[in-house]
Amino acid sequence: MSDGSKPEKLTWPLLKRVFSYARPYRRQILGMLVTILISSGLGLVSPLILRELIDNALPNEDVNLLTVLAALLMIVPLLNATVLVIQRWLNASIGEGLIFDLRAGLFNHLQRMSLRFFTNTKTGELMSRLNNDVVGAQRAVNTTLVSIVTNTTMVVATLIVMLALEWRLTLLGLMVVPLFIIPARRMTPVLRKITKEQMSENAKMNALMNETLNISGAMLVKLFGRADDEDQRFRKRAAGVRDAGVKQAVSGSMFFAFLGLIGAAGTAIVYYIGGRLVLDGSFSIGTIVAFAALLSQLYGPLQALVNAPVDFVTSMISFERVFEVLDMPLEVAEKPDAVALKDVQGAVTFEKVSFDYDDAGTVGFLSEVERHGMESVKKVLSDDDTSKPKSAANGNGATENGNSESAEKSQARTWALDGVSFEIQPGQLVALVGPSGAGKTTITYLLPRLYDPTEGRILIDGHDLRDVTLKSLSEQIGMVTQETYLFHDTLRMNLLYAKPDATQAEIEAACRAANIHDFIAALPEGYETVAGERGYRLSGGEKQRIAIARVLLKNPRILVLDEATSHLDSQSEALIQAALEKVMQGRTSVVIAHRLSTILKADLILVMNRGQVVERGTHAELLAKGGLYTELYHTQFNREYAPEIETEAVSAD
User: Fold this and answer.
1) Of residues 301, 194, 181, the one with CA closest to residue 247
2) Residue 638's pLDDT is what?
3) DSSP string of 76-96?
4) For the chain, does the N or the C end have fewer beta carbons within 10 angstroms?
């Protein structure tokens, strides 16, 4: 935090690690220090030129000296401007290079985090680490630190010159320095509090815009006719930003005006006392003028140095937040001696696999930090953060009044999977069925190693997934989820995500197999059509068929499918089913089955309940057992697909 309510600490290990990131830029840093020294020296030349002009050139009517001094008054600023440009270039090279190194390192590390990390971390927090905190880290190095070095150099150099000119006037000028420090120390927490208030109001406004101006939010506003209400809510938030901005501007202006008056008072004292001494013949007029110019170069850096250390420590907190991410261990890590999967046949084995979503092991989660960004807003629409729900679930499917689902029906439990074992032969179609929450999706997440099992192991062709390279595993497994995600880019680019070097012929062949080519070809822009955010410009069936085409283009040996088509129209459902049948031919397929036709075609049906495989076999074998599968058959498949059952029965005869 930076409001003064909590002291920040600066540790040597943190500084040492920060300096390690600056090591590649040590030449630029050295060059920048040289430019700071040169710029500080040039800044002290002009007052000395004025002194020489007033004390020697004008009284002695020395035209040659006057010409030289006038030329120097033009050359010195020109040289100083050139040095400052070089300094700025070096500074920017260091800062932007540091941003690149940190941002690239963060993104690389985040790409290798497990799915568990992302399900437990807010996207806004990740964006802040990649943007706000990285920029804050850059600011600490090439703004705050450079400012401290520059102002310190300027203060020291100016004091040396002033003492060399006249020590008594120097002491007079330093008399007002405490008047800079004391008010600044008292006003800084106030200004920070006002700044925090402004940023908080701005965060609330940004959060409201983010919630209501995305596709889903805008649709909800329109469907419920709340446009006028949201307009009023936004005006209220924007008014808060306006009022806080005015308050900050006025307070800052008053504070800096007060500091300016103190500087003016110091200059007036020097002029008055120095002027009396000039009248007595102790000083020259040029010395007084030079001192007045030097004082302006002393008071400005002193004002900046008053709170620079606190600002530096505060900005260094950004490095801590960046390092927190970089230090997080990889849950799904690749072994140094991992082997690449080759010539995969498609045999899959689960050996006593158990999994707990809440058990992160040694993997931690990002800490909640209070920052002045959108992610700090706990409630977007509500203004009252103190309200609490009157009742809540206790985590076991029961509310506070004690009512709960029966133990037999509820899927609430600690372990998502509990000792699951099964084998799939190459080329087999395995259907996963069971109640919602039984653990079917968890199995499909473990197979491509989005998570690692908490206990047990998973093998492909006898290779433990932990012993193979992640890239080769990804190449062998294709997955189509129920909720298809498309990038806000062209359909071509979304398809090429599976195989970047695919030819147009390969793309069209995959789309024909997925029954989507004719639709795309009929679009005005064809494959160059932009899908829209999350693919919102397409229907659910169209997105799903594009996802199938994308997997076909990848051409994996093992398929993992969530065959959810109940929310689609009959035509889209039929097209997707036909596409899936083509996709599954000759491949090992694990399907979360929702249709009886798929279940009847399955070589093996695994019936899941409460994280365990409670039944396994073919359709006929499971019906004969009269267990959970029979119950699901009569309560779900039989009612939902009665016409299909008759058709399948006839074809079976």
Assistant:
1) 194
2) 59
3) HHHHHHHHHHHHHHHHHHHHH
4) C
pLDDT at residue 34 above 90? Answer: yes
Given the structure tokens 């609430």, which residue do they identify? Answer: 412
Listed as own residue / partner, the contacts of 639-647 with beta carbons closer than 8 Å and 24 or more positions apart are: 640/566, 641/595, 641/596, 641/597, 644/595, 644/596, 644/597, 645/596
Q: Is 272 exposed, middle or buried (0-12, 13-18, 19+ CB in 10 A)?
A: exposed
- Quick: pLDDT tens for 375-407: 456 667 776 544 444 433 333 333 334 343 444
CA–CA distance, 254 with 287 (Å, rounded to integer): 32
CATH code of 421's domain: 3.40.50.300
336 is a domain residue? no
Answer yes or no: is 160 within a domain: yes
> Are the beta carbons of 295 and 267 closer than 8 angstroms?
yes
- Over residues 137-182, the pLDDT tens digits come to 877 777 788 888 888 898 899 889 888 888 888 888 888 878 777 7
What is d(CA 337, CA 298) in angstroms, rounded to the nearest whole number? 62
Q: CA dist 197 to 206, 296, 298, Å?
A: 14, 33, 33
| Alpha carbon separation from 462 to 348, 479, 560, 590 (Å, rounded) | 8, 21, 19, 18
Helix (H) or strand (E) holding 222: helix 215-223
| Angle between helix 215-223 and 227-279 (nearest 10) | 130
Same domain as 254, residue 230: yes
Residues 49 and 67 in one domain: yes
Say which CATH number the domain at 54 has: 1.20.1560.10
Q: Is 360 contained in some domain?
A: no
78 lies in the same domain as 37: yes
- Domain limits for position 127: 1-165+307-331
Give pLDDT tens digits for 361-378.
545 566 655 554 444 566
134/254 same-domain check = no
Interatomic CA distance for residues 473 and 461, integer angstroms: 12
Tell me the one-letter amino acid at 527.
Y
Number of helices followed by number of strands (H, E) in the chain: 26, 10
Domain count, the chain: 3
Which residue(s) pair with 590 in the sheet? 430, 560
Same domain, 114 and 139: yes
- In angstroms, the first-to-last Cα distance of the chain is 74
Percent of the chain exceeding pLDDT 70 equals: 85
Instruction: Look at strands 604-609 and 558-562 and give their pairing.
Output: unpaired
Domain identity same for 457 and 591: yes
Check if the beta carbon of residue 534 is closer than 8 Å to that of residue 525: no
Helix, strand, coil shares of the chain as percentages rounded to 5? 60, 10, 30
Q: What is the largest CA-CA distance in the chain?
A: 126
Phi then psi dihedrals of residue 387, to 5 deg? -70, 145
Q: What is the pLDDT of residue 162?
A: 87
**Residue 327 resides in a domain:** yes
User: Between residues 420 and 358, which one has the greater pLDDT?
Assistant: 420
Identify whether residues 463 and 434 lie together within a single domain. Answer: yes
